[in-house]
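Co-fold these.
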Amino acid sequence: MQFNTIGIIVKPEAVVVTDTLAHLLAYLKNKKLRVLLDESAQGLCQQNQTIVNRAQLAKQSDLVITIGGDGTILNAARSIADEDVPLVGINIGRLGFLADVPPNDFETALDKILAGDYLKAERFMLSASVQRDGKTLFSSDALNDVVMHVRNVARMIDFETRVDGKHVNHQRADGFIVATPTGSTAYALSSGGPILHAGLQAIALVPICPHTLSSRPLVVKADAVIEIIVGDTGQAIAQVTCDGQTSFDVIHGDVIKVQRKTKLLTLLHPPGHSYFEILRAKLHWNKNS
Amino acid sequence: MQFNTIGIIVKPEAVVVTDTLAHLLAYLKNKKLRVLLDESAQGLCQQNQTIVNRAQLAKQSDLVITIGGDGTILNAARSIADEDVPLVGINIGRLGFLADVPPNDFETALDKILAGDYLKAERFMLSASVQRDGKTLFSSDALNDVVMHVRNVARMIDFETRVDGKHVNHQRADGFIVATPTGSTAYALSSGGPILHAGLQAIALVPICPHTLSSRPLVVKADAVIEIIVGDTGQAIAQVTCDGQTSFDVIHGDVIKVQRKTKLLTLLHPPGHSYFEILRAKLHWNKNS
Amino acid sequence: MQFNTIGIIVKPEAVVVTDTLAHLLAYLKNKKLRVLLDESAQGLCQQNQTIVNRAQLAKQSDLVITIGGDGTILNAARSIADEDVPLVGINIGRLGFLADVPPNDFETALDKILAGDYLKAERFMLSASVQRDGKTLFSSDALNDVVMHVRNVARMIDFETRVDGKHVNHQRADGFIVATPTGSTAYALSSGGPILHAGLQAIALVPICPHTLSSRPLVVKADAVIEIIVGDTGQAIAQVTCDGQTSFDVIHGDVIKVQRKTKLLTLLHPPGHSYFEILRAKLHWNKNS
Amino acid sequence: MQFNTIGIIVKPEAVVVTDTLAHLLAYLKNKKLRVLLDESAQGLCQQNQTIVNRAQLAKQSDLVITIGGDGTILNAARSIADEDVPLVGINIGRLGFLADVPPNDFETALDKILAGDYLKAERFMLSASVQRDGKTLFSSDALNDVVMHVRNVARMIDFETRVDGKHVNHQRADGFIVATPTGSTAYALSSGGPILHAGLQAIALVPICPHTLSSRPLVVKADAVIEIIVGDTGQAIAQVTCDGQTSFDVIHGDVIKVQRKTKLLTLLHPPGHSYFEILRAKLHWNKNS
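Predicted complex below.
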């Protein structure tokens, strides 16, 4: 794969990315590569750059580099996955599960990646939709998770879960998470879900603060069709949210349908990248703990 | 204790209480007791009843009877605790932890209670306040819990906890629960908190979906002063809520202070009431499970 | 598939199976099927039956019927899996996850199964071995789980986990469970592991009472090679156990290697069998809880 | 309090304590204090020391210093608590919850403590006994916990719990922990129990790997009388163990009775000792996690 056109997406309104962005632009200019800047970078760079909208960026780029954290990758992933553009993340701030190129020495990593020396990790995503009275009112992709959640404090929501059309159970909880392996180390982990190895073809269904004490996380096949039927919400206002970034209010009777997206997301990592090493670092696992 | 004036508080706008309310009014009239109806009962009874505001009801009643669920008792408790009025709960709907008099045979229970044959359970409550720039902007009592929580989905909140002025830790979580023994079987239990026996002089501090994987519930003395210092909330909107019923938005730097309320709440139960029996029934504990 | 020879394995020394065994023998005799009885049935039946050892039974049977509980199926599975003999379980006692034919009406179920009207569920098993100084000292199959565990109370064990030759982490815990989807609803569930849907190609790695508070269950691909390297056990005596039935003591430096067994186990269920229905019944999930 | 006679108890057969023991003996000799050495120190010191048995040591000492870890303090506590002798722990190896004097600079801490400048922490202990057919067959004290546990892998035990003579529930689990606040950060924490603040007058009841999914830790008053009635153990061999150090096999029908010991244990800490600081260090809580 030849990377001629590089798209850049940054953490929006984040002054912290300014320096890294300037260095990256200089680096890519020096490599004589064509660069497309996402609108998120507007105002964060002085140079005379080509700024395009996200759809254009996705269509024309051979590679997208994000500057930010895992959230920036999540945001980028949802908009470029349909175009089969691979993604590299320069990580500002805390170490990320997804963004693993260090900002102070991105040149070493990018030299290798641009030369074709990289580890390719394919991650599957989810497609979520909300159906009401037979109509699809909302749809969105998600790389990490699709979360149904009450928006007001200390309220529970009643819901039914179905897998491949089969009734699983009724639960009362603060919410419910449908997570990919990628998302299993994010919100789902805080809610008591298991870690799904990044390459596993599986989806985790994790209740949030279940009132039903015998509720447990359930892991199903990646090609399962998951439906959450919203029950009586009482005074609660419930919402479905993809990757913590795009939301839609749901009401009694709505069906939230989640299934694997056909197109995969491709992440490129510098050689030497180790899934378990990042896991150990992020979860503070070490021999002496 | 002589119960001459009986206050009645019902689940607001709840048509389901109508029948029980009518029967209760007839029963009390027959006993020739003075009855004060809370404004929550307005429109739910045909009879020519004395309807007073909550403050009046609290001051003048010798006993308050609620019709509804545990939520109705929580609501009543916060308004009558200062006046030392005991509380009895007629339970509509699911079995309650607090409201334990059955609606279809409340006469048996009330005959005994009005005759002085009852079990008296004193429960302590919490006083919560929010301080910003040295001023108290919000204060409320709580029988179950004081909860700090983000209102928007999939956002975490940074906060520091102090006990008796001493730094305990910094955490990142969806929220944090300060629960009495009474509240330990409510929201705190769904969030992984322990059950505190109703008579224990202790408060449970329970993180909600902690990002910090080594976070654990902490139980402190009932007379501890608990402070939660709200950290950088990022894009999250955080709120403090007492008993799931009264809320206040908090911002970075706010101090949520929680301590035991001096006045105790007195619940009256019919003879034979058993704490562990209710626990077993509510949590579905039985020999064959 | 034609079922001409039926093998029968029962719960050993279990008088409770006597009646069902007698009825089953009469039923099969009436069907004019050849019957082989496992040595476990010796002394539990009066009739003049052909009793064979397990290896013979596995080789010659077209179908094996167990009478007992899930433990009897686990025991049978380990000895017949290599011969591709399908298994049906008549359940005595508590409802089983695996043994689902009721003893008081097994005729209805067996009529259908023998006529070829059944649901076929293929479950993968694990092969475990213990290697010390390059030699394999122990090996066993398991349908539910391979468990490393300290045998004496309140002692921890240090160990390292590797997946596909890669270091995952060091942990200190009471033990460690490697569970199939079949075993995910058994011991692994009590230890905080997730439920893996029966058809999922995945293995759950679940620490038992981890001293390391950030330890979490990890789910890996079914074809992963899992190695547990036993660390300093101090005063603890550690053991590896397959399906809770066959054990071997391990010492510092031993490598417990676990991987998927090539041969699958085939369970036959009567038509109408529902995985989620059994899950709901076993875990006491219902709408009102 | 004047500390004239100092008892010393060390980690048994632990060569690692030799150096610290030599330094401590020299230090105390220099202070012209009378020193009694426990039999655990036999063979670990060259000097001509007075070695006494534990009962003598407990009776004659004004202060006991342990060299080892928390286990050494647990061991010492059970033997000296009846004599009201305070305890100081020099910590070898990992930081301890109880033993907090560093071995490489114990002089600074002991100078202050011997001069009366210390923090005094009173910790309550438990008294456990096993009753069979009306006879007490075993009794022991415990500073951390009384644990009932199956000794063989993957076996469960049935048992009933009573608090103050009242039936709480029946459970099936790997075991059950009765923990003091001191013990709440030890084994009980690994089993999902809450942290009880060191000064709390409460006892935590924590099931180990409960088969009953709705089982939860229960916290009761420190003066509660807890009874565990051992049920049908099937093929499991069950044991009761105090502080992980002294054990007794129990059988179906045995009653394990646990209650607070009247005598308190007194720990002396150097000035500046902070409970929460040790908690943060031991549990790896910090701002960036």
